[in-house]
Amino acid sequence: MHVPPELLYTKTHEWAKRDPQEIVVGITAHAQEELRDVVFVELPKVGKVVKPGEPAAVIESVKAAFDIYAPVSGTISRVNDAVAKAPQLVNQDCYSKGWLFAITPSVPEDVSRLLSPDEYTKQIQTATH
Amino acid sequence: MLKTALHDRHRALGAKMTDFHSWDMPLYYTSILEEHRAVREALGVFDISHMGQVLVAGPDAVRTLNALMVSDISQVAQGRACYTLMLNEQGGIIDDLIIYRLGESEFLVIVNCGNRAVDVAWLAGHVEGQTTVTDISEGRSILAVQGPRSSRVLEEILDAKVAGLGKFCIAPIRTMGPDACLARTGYTGSDGFELFLPDRHALRVWDAVLSMAKPLGARPVGLGARDTLRIEAGLRLYGTDMDAATSPIEVGLEWTVAMNKPAFIGKNVLVTQQQDGVARKFIGFELSQGPVPRTGMELAVDGRRIGMVTSGTFSPILAKPLGMGYVEPAYTKPGTTLTLTVRNQRHHATVVKLPFWKGDAKTQAALTSPAAPTRERLT
User: Fold this and answer.
1) Would you call A63 and B224 a contact, using CB atoms and an 8 Å cutoff?
2) Which residues of A touch B (CB under 8 A)?
3) Are A30 and A36 in contact (CB under 8 A)?
4) Cα B218 to Cα B44: distance, rounded to the nearest angstrom
5) Same domain, B299 and B158
6) What residue of B is the nearest CA neighbor of A35?
7) How far apart are CA B67 and CA B265, in angstroms?
8) Which residue, A60, A80, B141, B343, has fewest beta-carbon neighbours within 10 Å?
9) Residue (of A58, A52, A56, A7) closest to A29 by Cα position
10) Coil, helix or strand for B194?
11) Phi, psi (degrees; rounded to nearest 5) at A15
12) Contact assessment for residue B310 and residue B264, using Cβ atoms and an 8 Å cutoff
């Protein structure tokens, strides 16, 4: 399963990309593979305050709805309108066009609690064995 | 976990498996949406061997079935099938089933897998005169071959005049011995067939259908798409849309009921319900966009709860969320606006006439062409 080396991860299968001003968030290849058939994405409103471990978005597959958690504390700065219009982008390109939302972080040290690519890879390997 | 004769094949095809009433069944092979489209546009093959096969036979088989089923089984001609319901004394649905008349006094009854033991016990406990009830499920498979390409592909494989078999007709597949039958029935809304076979034939037919139809866009289809297809076709699912506390009138299946029959279990309750009405009615509704309606979600009008969702999905063909469920009888008219609350957000839902998907021209043509039962033509 593809785990890009430049990203950080959560136990709940979100990826986080550190940009100068914000953290961009999406779900991992492992997560989209498990969900399959994404048919609806509910994104947070820009300006919403989020905390780690709190649901920030919802992805629905044909079979069920799944909460997507904020990896870090902060304020939603941008959301991906394209993925709201074309939810299949999550399946087709989860690390790029299928990004979900961006956060302006309020607690810089939150990032240090995220998983490295190696740690996340170990987690999904353990879970699938 | 129970396994069908095709279990190894499902694994080899990389299926994601799921526990369905203790059966280890394929949920999907690649994608529910792709498998759904394959059925609507070309062909899909399903392993539904988990369903129960029960033989009801004997000189009094018609009398037995007529006392238990809501339909008039005496009106079902040899080589024909009937979708019907079996009720308890309270008028609640024990199961919905398809009864195929194989011979003058021989019927193949297909029951839901979760109800198999209950159904067999109920049938056996209510036999009239000379009737035998035999659960023949063990050692037998059921394959469903569904979609507009089904009849051409099966005709090649079975070397029989499949295309001439009318809708809801059944005929033996003579090349496979006396125990193999083919029926033009299904649970998808598309044209298609179900094959009732001894296990030894299942893998050969499965592989033959897929290898022949693959260039046409055929796919193996799991229970995931079986569910989305049946919802699009407005077909109810036992255990989800109806149960032993649901009457045929509530769930909108009164068309199956022969009220002119002198008696059948549950009839008196239905007579009362016809006079007095029922408190809830089954409907279909759609959203123009937004989240997927899920089992148990509330339906409201003007802030007041008036019903509940029992089934929902996203329709890949109609490209919108669809739902079915129960509402108070005042809100069943197509066009009525309901409110579906999902995660504290309100969404407009519009009541629509079932089925959601009404079939394409090709399907309709296939189903209305030569309809005479062609039992003799299959050799």
Assistant:
1) yes
2) 36-37, 39-40, 42, 58, 60, 62-65
3) no
4) 5
5) no
6) B31
7) 6
8) B343
9) A7
10) strand
11) -105, 155
12) no
pLDDT at residue A67 in the model: 97
Q: Running DSSP on this structure, what letter comes out for residue B178?
A: T
Closest in B27, B224, B291 to A40, CB measured:
B291
Domains of chain A: 14-113 (2.40.50.100)
Q: Is the pLDDT of residue B361 over 70?
A: no
Task: Provide the terminal-to-terminal Cα distance of chain A, rounded to the nearest Å.
Answer: 14
What does the alpha-carbon distance between residue B346 and residue B341 come to, in Å, rounded to a whole number? Answer: 5
Which residue segment(s) compose the domain that B340 sits in? 280-370
Angle, CA A71 vertex, CA A23 and CA A69 arms, to 5°: 120
How far CA B110 is from CA of B10, B14, B292, B367, in Å, comes to 23, 28, 31, 22
pLDDT digits 0-9 by tens, B111-163: 999 999 999 999 999 999 999 999 999 999 999 999 999 999 999 999 777 88
- Position B70 scores a pLDDT of 98
Between CA B62 and CA B82 the distance in angstroms is: 13
Chain B interface mutation, best of A32, A34, A35, A36, highest count of B Cβ atoms under 10 Å: A36
Question: Does residue B368 register a pLDDT over 70?
Answer: no
H-helix segments, chain A: 29-35, 81-85, 89-92, 117-128
- ipTM of this complex prediction, to 2 decimal places: 0.91
Question: What percent of chain A lies above the pLDDT cut of 70?
Answer: 98
Q: Helix, strand or coil for residue A38?
A: strand
> Cβ of A58 and B28 within 8 Å?
no
- Taking an 8 Å Cβ-Cβ cutoff, which residues of chain B contact chain A? 16, 27-28, 31-33, 224, 228, 290-292, 294, 313-314, 321, 343
- Res. B87: pLDDT tops 60: yes
**What total number of domains does chain B contain?**
2
In a domain, B87, yes or no: no
Euclidean distance between CA atoms A17 and A31, whole angstroms: 16
Does B336 share its domain with B191? Answer: no
Question: Which residue in the set A36, A58, A62 is minimally distant from B314, CB to CB?
Answer: A62
- Cα of first residue to Cα of last residue in chain B, in angstroms, is 37
pLDDT score for B33: 97
Q: Cα–Cα distance between B145 and B45 in angstroms, integer? A: 5
DSSP state of B58: S
Last residue of a domain, one of B167, B200, B232: B232
Residue B156, domain CATH: 3.30.1360.120
Enter the tokens of residue B177.
Answer: 């011995």
Q: Where does the pLDDT of residue B360 fall: very low under 50, low under 70, confident under 90, or very high at 90 and above?
A: low
A65 interaction partners in chain B (CB closer than 8 Å): 291-292, 294
